[in-house]
């Protein structure tokens, strides 16, 4: 079961990216599992369907980098 296999990865990501809020949702509302949704200010900015740890890490890295504001 791919969604169960992703639980340790999900927990590791939550520990690594402490400035990102990780939540789980009721699977009855999702058409495919596992589904990862990245949101900013209440709006969906990315979605990944399937158990692909490398791709979800890549997308979270990109999401975190794009969220940082640099002041000169």
TrEMBL record:
It comes from the Eukaryota. The keyword Disulfide bond applies. InterPro entries: Thioredoxin-like_sf, Thioredoxin_domain. Keywords: Disulfide bond. Residues 5-61 form the Thioredoxin domain. CDD domains: TRX_family. This is Thioredoxin domain-containing protein. It comes from Cannabis sativa.
């Amino acid at each position: 079961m791919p969604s169960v296999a992703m639980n340790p990865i999900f927990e590791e990501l939550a520990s690594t990216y402490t400035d990102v809020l990780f939540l789980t949702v009721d699977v009855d509302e999702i058409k495919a599992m596992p589904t990862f949704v990245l949101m900013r200010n209440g709006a969906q900015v990315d979605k990944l369907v399937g158990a692909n740890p490398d791709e979800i890490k890549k997308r979270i890295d990109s999401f975190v980098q794009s969220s940082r504001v640099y002041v000169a």
